[in-house]
Specification:
about 250 residues, mainly beta, Jelly Rolls, 7-stranded antiparallel sheet, 5-stranded antiparallel sheet, 3 helices, 14 strands, about 30% strand, globular
Length: about 250
């Protein structure tokens, strides 16, 4: 058998690679499923290979409106009747009074290379699952470069922030919810883009003005495998407004 020979890059190939920059090629798929269980009590999600970031909150600037957490993000201790020795904290998100577009809480999923914010490759996963308690309605969405403005690490130049997501109806009990990549859609008002899980920049939990006031808890956020996404309980939860028929909360 004739041994294959490596072909060196030509000067033109080197030029193309340099122009592409540190994010020019897709990074290897991530393999750490946990995003955050909030037990460390800080504003950073779990750090994994080529995935890092921080939690944040934002809302429109309606006079007199309220948003929590606001400024520095921190999870709250669960009420005594809902916490356990191994699960003491969760994100407690509240908003009221916003009249323009609403409020959002989220975390970045990107990583930084030579000062450039590069997308996280979530292609080894099929979506996310999380536990939450309302009641209320929230939209779970994922930012990719095509929908995120340039000054936030994306490539969008007009009608930005129409991210791919799914509306979720939260009950007044802790339930597990699943959002699958193959079920997310844009809102239809922004720049049209194809969802690409190999280029994730962030995860958001958002409420519009019609869902205010909002008061809900989120905990145990994880990526899920294709096998988990296709399980009967997960398949049911992929329909907007339906929790997974898995273990109930505290």
């Amino acid at each position: 058998m004739t041994a294959s020979k490596e072909t060196p890059l030509s000067p033109e190939d080197d030029k193309v690679k340099a122009q592409a920059g540190p994010c020019g090629t897709t990074s290897p798929p991530g393999d750490a499923p946990i995003i955050d269980d909030f037990e460390d009590g800080d504003a950073k999600p779990f750090k994994a290979f080529q995935r890092e970031g921080w939690w944040f909150s934002a809302s429109d600037n309606t006079e007199g409106s309220k948003l929590s957490p606001s400024g520095s993000f921190a999870p709250d201790r669960l009420p005594a009747a809902q916490g356990t020795k191994s699960n003491l904290y969760a994100a407690h998100l509240t908003a009221q009074g916003q009249k323009q577009w609403g409020a959002t809480w989220g975390t970045t999923l990107r990583w930084v290379q030579k000062g450039i914010r590069c997308p996280f490759n979530g292609s080894s996963f099929a979506g996310i699952k999380f536990r939450a308690k309302g009641p209320g309605d929230v939209r779970v969405s994922f930012g990719i470069p095509d929908t995120v403005p340039r000054d936030e690490g994306g490539t969008c130049t007009e009608r930005c922030w129409d991210s791919h997501g799914m509306p979720i109806h939260l009950t007044d009990r802790w339930e597990e919810y699943v959002v699958r990549w193959d079920r997310v859609q844009q809102g239809g008002w922004g720049t049209d883009a194809r969802f690409d899980p190999t280029r994730l920049l962030g995860l958001n939990f958002s409420v519009s003005t019609k869902e205010l006031p909002a008061d809900f808890w989120v905990d145990d956020i994880e990526f899920i495998s294709p096998q988990q996404a296709n399980a009967p309980a997960a398949a049911g939860s992929a329909e907007p407004g339906k929790p997974a028929k898995g273990p109930k909360g505290r």
